[in-house]
Structures are given as C-alpha cells and as structure tokens.
Amino acid sequence: MLKNDLLLRAARGEETERTPVWLMRQAGRILPEYRELRARLSGFKELVETPELAAEVTIQPVDALDVDAAIIFSDILVVPEAMGLTYEMLEARGPLFPETIKSARDVENLRVADPEEHLGYVLEAIRVTKKALNGRVPLIGFAGAPWTILAYMVEGHGSKTFSKARRMLYAEPELAHKLLRKITDTTIAYLQAQVAAGANLVQVFDSWAGILPPHQYQEFSTRYIAEICRAIPDVPVTVFAKGAFFAVADFAQLPCRTIGLDWNQDPSLVRPLVGDKTLQGNLDPCALYGTREQVRQATIEMLRQFGPHRHIANLGHGVYPDTDADNVRVFIETVKEYSPQMR
C-alpha cells in the first residue's frame, strides 16, 4: 500500500486534497548527492546500467525535495541499444550513435528486444527502488515515443532540425513505418515489463514531437503512441509530446489518463479539448532562475490556470542542470501550500 497516492489518484481523475507535484529530470544534476555519486563513476551509462546506483539516484529527490513521486533513473536511448544500436553519452554534447539506420538492411538487422534479456538492468533497478521506497511514493516508469527514438537512430545525435530523420518520412515512408513497428513492439514489451517489475505509472516522452507538421505527426507518431497506450491497461499512462500543441485533441481520444503540457501551452485552452483527462505541467523551467518570490508567484499563477482538480504539477520540460535546488524546493513547497486553498 502506498503511503502517498496523490499522483495516482490525480492521474485517475479523482479529487485530491492538494495537487501532487514532481519534476521531469528531478533525479540528476541539480542535487549535490547526484554529482558526488556521478564523479566516482566512469560515466552516465555506468550509472544507468548499475541497478543499485540507479535506484539510489532515483530516490535522492524523494529524500531531498519531498516530491510526490519517484521516476526511475534511466534514459530513453536504452531502447535502441537493446534493439542492437549502441549509443554513447558524451559530456557536454549528449548522445551519439556511432552507427545509424540508413537502409532497409539496417532495419532488418535490428531485433525486437526482450525486456528481461536486453533491458534487465532497468527492470532490476525498478525492483530495487520499489523495495527501498517501501511505499513512500509511487514509482514512475518511462520510455521514449517511437518517433523520437527513430529520430535519434537515423540522425545519430541531437539536432535542431533532425533533417535526416525527417527526410526518411518523405523519401522512404514504408521504411520509416517498418522501423517504427520494431520500436513500438520493443517499447510495448519494455513498458509492460516495467509495470510487472513495480512501476505504478508510466510516461511516454515524445521529445521531438514539435518538429513534425500535424499530418506527419498523426501518421508517424500518434498512431504508435495509441498502440502503446492500449497495451498498458493496468496503470495510468501519461503522454508528453513537447511542442506538439496541435496534437492535444488527438491525445484526448487516446486511452491515456494524463496529458503533459510544455510551457508554451495554455491550460485554459487545452482543458476544454481533453474532457476528463488529467493535465500535467507546465511551469517554464527558466522560471526557476528567478528570485524565490518570483518562483512562488509563477507557481501560484500556474496553479490558478490549471484549476484545483485533474492536475499534476510539473515543469513544461525537464529541470535544467544549473537550476538552484532551493528554487526547486520553493516550487514544490508552493504547490503544497497553495493548492489546498483552491479546493
């Protein structure tokens, strides 16, 4: 039994005594405990692939920030690696794939990953974390949306345009769909395994949703996200598609419980489009660079825009690594102090 089930109740659309709050990328570089641990290791991948250490980092923000949920410390790019496409994580540069997907043969050579065999370290991290949390808060699992994973596998690294990946959608749409099929099958099995290992809720991150036009997003992303949502009936599913404001109405038809909003979306405009869905978000991460009072006022304004029910407080994207942890605490404390007054 969970001692704090605010997040799950809010995700299910139930009334809560206050708004639950957590932060995307909360387990990471804003905390000195994380930096100290990371400094002893060879790199990011060692941390991700060592279950006991990943569990420790997952729990750090629960202890340090008193958030209402933990999110397993991992990366969306473990999926392409499990499929046979290895990535590197370079300091100050981000992910890099030494080999990329260029042809039909490359797609054929990819496997649909077996979660226990190829992603067992993540599942073990979930099991270790659940035991250590001992029911304090829910544990969130996650994966990248198939389009975002394709974008990295074809481009090979982060990009402002992802022109190689987008070119495939125009020049070789059938090949794109074959690749998306394998990614989707892997992702479904992976998320199902996360739930079996103990994840109370899962989130699908479509980080590069906003670089596609609406018609392509429907064809090459929404349809696959819909499959994932249908395949995870036992726990609430959150869909977060950064920059895809045009997709909200489509997401309202998905069997997901929560829709995440980035900081450019107006919750008062989104709310009428989504029926009884819960909304998550959406403070601008840069608002946390302000003074303590500015952070407090920005948080209160965010809460007013979303209203008292069916809301999970969060940022509109991941917390930035140079953010003052004390300002993060002001954000969290303001949600806890102010949101009960709205009931």
UniProtKB/TrEMBL annotation:
Annotated CDD domains: URO-D (cd00717)
GO molecular function terms attached to this record: uroporphyrinogen decarboxylase activity
Transmembrane feature ranges: none
Residues given in the record as substrate binding sites: R25, Q26, A27, G28, R29, D75, Y152, S207, H317
EC number: 4.1.1.37
Gene Ontology cellular component terms for the protein in this record: cytosol
Keyword DNA-binding: no
Single GO biological process annotation from the record: protoporphyrinogen IX biosynthetic process
Keywords: Cytoplasm, Decarboxylase, Lyase, Porphyrin biosynthesis
Superkingdom per UniProt: Bacteria
Claim: tRNA-binding is one of the keywords in the record: no
Residue span, Uroporphyrinogen decarboxylase (URO-D) domain: 20-29, 140-156
Function as written in the Swiss-Prot or TrEMBL entry: Catalyzes the decarboxylation of four acetate groups of uroporphyrinogen-III to yield coproporphyrinogen-III.
Protein name in the entry: Uroporphyrinogen decarboxylase
